[in-house]
Amino acid sequence: MRIRLFTFGAMTFMLAGLIMAGPDLPVKAAAVAEGTRPWPGAVVPYIADPALVGEGRADCVGPQNSPRWARVCRAMAAWTQATGIRFHLASADEARNGLGLRLLPGSARKLPAAVSVATVGYHPKAYAAFGTGSSYGAILHEFGHVLGLMHEHQRPDRARYLDFSPFILDGLKGQCGTVSARDCTDIRNNFSTLRLSRFQSDYDPCSLMHYLSRQGQRNRAEPRWAKVFTLTKAGQAQNRACARTLADKSDACTRPGQKCQIAPNDARIVRSFHGLKGDR
After folding, report:
1. For residue 93, what are the contacts with CB-CB under 8 A and spacing of at least 6?
2. What are the b/e assignments for 94-127, b being 16+ CB within 10 Å?
3. What is the pLDDT of residue 9?
């Protein structure tokens, strides 16, 4: 089963929590779940749906008439600059053989405007779909999933760094008496710990792949989503340390769950996972 993730604004909702076991990975890193495969040759051919591209160019050359497609092109360029991963418009042969990442409008998956989805890592049927309201940060986050990254807050060592609210802990234990069935399922799917291939980096609250503590948009009728975790002292120390490594050091862009930029550890993990050497 592929993992699929929904992003609502700056948040991502995992729809399926299982990954089929795969071959041993050449490099295993934090926030890469077991069974995830890198893109062959660190190259991502993509097939762009005309409804997503609009009247622009699918190869991302020049100005784009569709603001949404412009954000997609900008996100791919940012990951290329940060990691060396290359995206290119799939050739006819690649498309015919199903080798490309399918980039779709959210309407193709019947998604609400602010929601986006993506498969995780290389897969013959890999795709990402973006609603009309998908922000640049949400799209950047989805491409992190495409390149193999899972959520930082789902690491198995997270208890040292994060204190989750009783609301979340009850849902994780299956004690849903005070939690709606919808929220309970959401909690189990998106806040449970995942097995990781190997720890390549320390916990990184500045990761683009971390959740925000404020999750109110998940269910506006449930006020307990307003704050789902706090950082422990160890987590706060990590946050101070990682904030110093970010290009944008504004408060909004250094808090856990920031969606402003690709954190250095995100880029390093993607490079290592795909066998790319050195820093950029």
Report:
1. none
2. beeeebbbbbbbbeebebeebbbbbbbbbbeebb
3. 43
For residue 276, give every residue at least 6 positions away whose Cβ sits within 8 Å of its Cβ, in sequence order, or none: 42, 83, 84, 85, 270
Closest CA to 236 of 216, 218, 219, 213: 213
Residue showing tokens 């791919």: 76
Q: List all residues 6 or more positions away from 169 whose beta carbon is below 8 Å from its beta carbon.
A: none
With the C-alpha atoms ordered 184, 30, 128, 141, is the resulting torsion angle positive or negative? positive
pLDDT band at 256 (very low <50, low <70, confident <90, very high): very high
Across residues 34-55, what is the average pLDDT?
93
Stronger pLDDT, 16 or 216, i.e. the higher one: 216
Retrieve residue 218's tokens. Answer: 């998940």
- In this predicted structure, the answer to whether residue 88 has a pLDDT above a threshold of 90 is yes
Compute the mean pLDDT over every residue in the chain, rounded to the nearest whole number. 85
Q: How many Å from the N-terminal Cα to the C-terminal Cα in the chain?
A: 34
Output the pLDDT for position 22.
30
Tell whether the model's pLDDT for residue 55 goes beyond 90. no
User: Using CB atoms within 10 A of its CB, is residue 62 exposed (0-12), middle (13-18) or buried (19+)?
Assistant: exposed
Predicted model pTM? 0.86
The two structure tokens encoding residue 54: 């609009």
